[in-house]
């Protein structure tokens, strides 16, 4: 399955990068996510419970980040297992572009699935993926408003990064899913495919 979209974010490119690389933010924003753990340099394990139509399962996945260009872009490779519910694998390209009012997040996902999830039908899977993406972005937007409530760009200026909120050093060159990703937002989308 292929999916691509863009989303306007009302935070600076650096703020979005830092937040999308913070495992606590991702855990809070990804529907059903119960863990996001660093397992190596630019490698992460994710655990989540997900229901798609009549199929529900706990999924465990691995995510590897490559082609990292902070705070602009990276590529996410992902694979995961949901027991009898199925498996998935794929990759995503994520890009953040500054705008006068914040930044634009653009992503392209290519994924494939097998098992019971694959038997649900493309229409149901597509609908679940869109719903998960919207839920992630709603939660992410709410979290950005909470973290950066004082964020206001002067007309025609590019907002500066917040000096008081930064991701841990190990995550600076990291996740954007899935990954919806952002990284993990995209992982969520992958698990739904």
What would your notes on this structure say?
With 193 residues, the protein is an alpha+beta fold. It has one domain (2-192): START domain (Alpha-D-Glucose-1,6-Bisphosphate, Chain A, domain 4), CATH 3.30.530. It contains four helices and seven strands; from the N terminus they run E-H-H-E-E-E-E-E-E-H-H. The protein has a seven-stranded antiparallel sheet. Helix 2 crosses helix 3 and helix 3 runs antiparallel to helix 4. It is globular.
Could you name the key traits of this structure?
about 190 residues; 4 helices; globular; 7-stranded antiparallel sheet; about 25% helix; alpha+beta; disordered C terminus; single chain; Alpha-D-Glucose-1,6-Bisphosphate, Chain A, domain 4; 7 strands
CATH superfamily: START domain
Query: What is the first-to-last residue Cα distance?
Result: 7 Å
And the CATH topology? Answer: Alpha-D-Glucose-1,6-Bisphosphate, Chain A, domain 4
Give the helix level as a range of percent.
25-40%
Quaternary class:
single chain
Total strand segments: 7
